[in-house]
Amino acid sequence: MCHRNAPLTETGRLRLARCVVDDRWPLRRAAERFQVSPSTAQRWADRYRTEGEAGMADRSSRPHHSPRRTPSRTERRIIKVRVIRRWGPARIAFLLGLNPATVHRVLGRYRLARLAHLDRATGRVIRRYEYPQPGGLVHVDIKKVGNVPDGGGSKVLGRQAGSHNSQATVTDRRRAGGKKPAIGYSYLHNAVDDHSRLAYTEILPDETRETAAAFWQRAHTFFTDAGITVLRVLTDNGSCYRSHLWTATLTAAGITHLRTRPYRPQTNGKVERYNRTLLDEWAYAQLYLSDTERRNALPHWLHTYNHHRGHTALGGHPPASRVPNLTRHNSYPTTKAKRPAQPPEGSAK
Fold first, then answer.
1. I need a surface site. Which of 187, 198, 312, 325 has the fewest CB within 10 A?
2. Kind of pairing, strands 256-259 and 199-204?
3. What is the pLDDT of residues 158-205, one digit of tens each?
């Protein structure tokens, strides 16, 4: 195929060759007329004499012989290790004593799937799917995170001082009669729409069936206010999602409940990837001096994720770009904003 700045196309080559061969033009005159070098004009004229019009077509630039190409036996060993062990180029190169660039070229030459596209357990290519409209499927999951002690943890004060600070904070709260210790764990209850990736998150104190069911009712209200009709909900096999209360909550709203196969978190991959983004860009993105400070930062981050942060699966657009009814909510939340429903104490939207 000709490149964009090529002076001759197949038609131009034919005209050049005919001028030289049929019309007896001098080689330099024909080369000047078609703005190419005399050697180029000679080449196309020679091809026209021997092959006719068929000789004007593009040919492969691949050499006839490649004496320095990796031996076939070595290529078969590379492919065997990749298929059986599912290793990357660096590890394969270390095992076989090769250059990683050589291994990478061999894998690319045989068009083997990337490791990111394979299921690590079975080695099969992951089937990716996306529902055609918002609400067709909503992924729900829970992520457990550690609380931040008052004054900061080990990342702020160092390992030894952070450990002492956590223990002292718990002791002070217990002596003061506080019911909730400053350290411990919180549970991020997350819901992500499959089509738009629109997300809803609350920080709750546990993962019991009552808490999970109440969270979904508020999440369902959030999606409904955005103009999304939820038809299906996908969860893992956690005890709260196998409870009768959870089933009754979804059935009352006319929603079908789907569960992943045991030990197959890939099926619920969209919310699993959201969990990782949530931790990287909010929970551990900066050094917080208290758990309250981190909780207060969640609404702003969640709004940025839904309305302003580009998503690679959406062509660099935010989730709100696939939900037209969210245009009126495209402003950062403030303390004076009126919310439709207040979550329990210790939660955040």
1. 312
2. unpaired
3. 555 555 555 555 555 555 455 544 468 899 999 999 999 999 999 999
Written as six digits, the tokens of 45 are 């004229």
42 and 76 co-located in one domain: no
Looking at the structure, tell me whether residues 276 and 309 fall in a common domain: yes
CA-closest candidate to residue 139, choices 259, 291, 301: 259
Give the structural domain span for 19. 10-53
Judge contact between 125 and 113, C-beta under 8 A: yes
pTM above 0.90, yes or no: no
Name which residue leads in pLDDT, 3 or 34.
Answer: 34
Q: Which candidate, 225, 227, 251, 259, places its Cα nearest to that of 141?
A: 259
The number of distinct structural domains making up the chain is 4
Please provide the distance, in angstroms rounded to a whole number, between the alpha carbons at the two ends of the chain.
Answer: 55
Q: Which residues of 82-105 are buried (b: 16+ CB within 10 A; e: fewer)?
A: beeeebebeebbeeeebeeebbbb
